[in-house]
Amino acid sequence: MRYEFHLPDIGEGLTEAVIAGWSVKAGDAVKEDDPLCEIETDKAVVEITAPCTGTVISVRGEIGETLKVGTVITVFETEKLPVGAGRGGHGQAVEEAEPPLAQPAAPPAEIPASGGASPVAFDRAIRATPATRRLAREQGVDLATVAGTGPGGRVLQNDVMRFADGGQIGQATGATGSSGGRFTIAPIPREPGQTRQPLTGLRRVVADQMVRSVTLVPHASSSFRCEAGRFQTLRKLLQERLGTRISFTAMVMKAMVSAIQRYPTFNQSIDETTNEVVTPPFVNIGFATHTDDGLIVPVIKDCGARTLTEISGEIDRLAALARSRKIAPGDLRGGTITLSNVGSHGRAEAIGGRLIVNHPQAAIIGMTRIRPLPIVRDGQVVAAPCLDFHTSYDHRIIDGIYAGLFMEHLIDVIEEPGMMLAN
Amino acid sequence: MQMKCDLVVLGGGPGGYSAAFRAADLGLDVAIVEARDTLGGVCLNVGCIPSKTYLHQAAVIRELEHSRSVGVNFGAVEIDLTALRAHKDAIVGRLVGGLGTMASARKVRIVRGRGEFTGANSVRVAHGDGADALTIDFAYAIVAVGSEPARLNELPDDSRILDSTSALDLPASSGTMLIVGGGIIGLEMATIYAALGMTIDIVELGDGLMPGADRDLVTTWRKANARYVRDIMLETRLSGVEVDNAGLSVSFEGKAAPDQPKRYDYMLMAIGRIPNGRGIAGDAAGLTVTPHGFVPVDVQMRSNVRNIFAIGDVVGGPMLAHKAVHEGHVAAEVIAGEHSKDAHLSTAAFDARVIPSVAYTVPEVAWAGLTETEAKLNGQAVDVVKFPWVASGRALANGCENGFTKLLFNKDTRVLLGGALIGPSAGDMIGEIAHAIEMGSEAADLALTIHPHPTLGETIGLGAEVAEGTCTDLPAATGTHRAGRAPTRAA
Questions:
Q1: Does the beta-carbon distance from B354 to A105 stay under 8 Å?
Q2: Its pTM surpasses 0.80
Q3: Where, by residue number, is the active site (chain B) (predicted)?
């Protein structure tokens, strides 16, 4: 019998994914759990395996194509349906192409087979009115790739036209509350010599997240410098005593935990849908990681309850997984504040800059590398190892003075690590 | 003889004429090939419209019975079958006459006869009287040949064994009738003949009447009709029919089969409909027609042959006129778009999310979208709310307080997924539910829309209020629904 396999939700809340590669083609015989395809979702590449043993009748999804969770990606001919088929699983058995002629007294006229619209399908369908659906067809726009700006993610006719005119970026995706997200964008004229590539996969996720952050969060930023001599000395001591490498990033995270205990608003979020301020029970610090495909922010969960060694090891482990794109979706979720080590790449020295808060978090901290800089000590200009911090924060819930106090606490701990004892 | 056109439509039923008229309005030169003398197909000539003419009178008779019980007595019902038939014929005549006028105004040519393909760009129309056959060369074709009542081969040929077409001739208004098939058509016929005064039995092979409808609707229907239908034999089939001058002797087998054959004056076969795809010589055009007579199509209603489309009963799915009309418009737009190189028009597709179903019985039953039965089968998380009409002042005033309105919402998003009504005018009210589903409406959208009071349609708004926890026309909800609009924020 036929079995339609739907693109599964491999992590909580996943709504769409990009097809990264196919391991099968129509006509192939497959065994259950054989590799089927790779999908790139919300920052990770995940292998999807065949749900059943049988023959592949058709596959759907070009490499690079964005598909909604629930879209049929493979049709199998199989002897044995997977467990859960048709009952909330990732697929459903379908009737043969031939509409069956019912036995007399169960007439075909009264079988509630609908012309293609199964009840399950339309529950998962994109929210758009019939007129919008027609407009999308006319414009050649796949509604599944348009982020709706209407209530509840509804795709509006404006969204379709904006997409048709200039692609996805520029939409205030998921905009709610005060943002509105209505603006008109002119397309970039097509000219000879230009090349164009669809904004997909991780790059699209980053783009959407950045637009969401700058659209929703009123940013305020400030920068600070501190001496880091004692911090360096402490690191050396710890590495000797613990017999393992300890990163400055991990140590700054510990200092952040201390500052958050004193100034918890840095760890809060606004729930835009309810206008509530949410205080999480943990400090989950995301750390920005550069990969060849774009920015990924793995999250170290509950930093307050972990030792320095654990945090340092976890940073190395998650960064490696992120770079090889094998990181689990769960390790990318749940961050409550972000740390970006802007000094870890290249030779150029950042002397300022504005970081973008990772919505719905309220704050991001950037740290530079430690390097000798001229400072004034006892009226004399001397060279001393220095570490600069930049921070951007959600000015709706964090005042400038409060941010200053938070950073002062952080710097106190860096300059005199013994201050940790005070907490 | 020879003629040429941009588009030939095989079949002038609701799907066929709608496709032809839409295509003509979009600038195509169109011909309809129709075997009947009039346009309108089964629906107008021997289906929806004539049966509704009788069903309205059946509803009136049932209303009169109610009126009698509340002090308004018109005396005994007298039925003049000749006048009633003439009334039906007059209505059909008005409608099909109107269609003929609209066809000529659009310059749509009507060719009488049955069309058979002779190639992918030509059909041959043989006239019933054996006169010269006509060959029509076309750029595009739409197959809209519909369906016909299914027959059991082993039945004797006897004028007292009716189908849904001959039943409309109203051969009798007294005596006994066996209805074979408990689907919508069978129940509508049961409603008509019971109201006229016949004693009705129903035999159905399946385990319930009205397949496709939720069982609570059917239970309510059966209660309301307990006085009008003598015997309902479920999971039972015919095992033999003997005819003699005095009537029909029918034997049964199955769960509810009586030991002895039962005698009836009439039998009405309503066991389904068979698509007419086999009578069009599809092979000659390379057209795929399944062994059962269906023509497979894609969402644009296009068959396996690029310039041949098919719509309506012959493509499968529910055999309903409103589905056929919608499909006819889609096919016409795709064809006109391709013909005139209109890139927008040619993207038309069948994209409706729901096709409402209605049983025009007394009481009327209507449903659209997801049913409770399907939701259970799929394991979908839905909120099912029912507004009982006993809480509706208008339903009490009208004597239809046994009805109810049911709505199904997605548990998380609150989006309306399906709905059903049972009671007078249920079919007229289901359109609001279908529209709300197509628009992606949430419970709040329906609940916050002011529905006029006191009406039966108001129960849709009230049902949505029940889902929202804001309804004040029922005892206060306890726990199952949230109180008011704001989501529960407790951790």
A1: no
A2: no
A3: 453
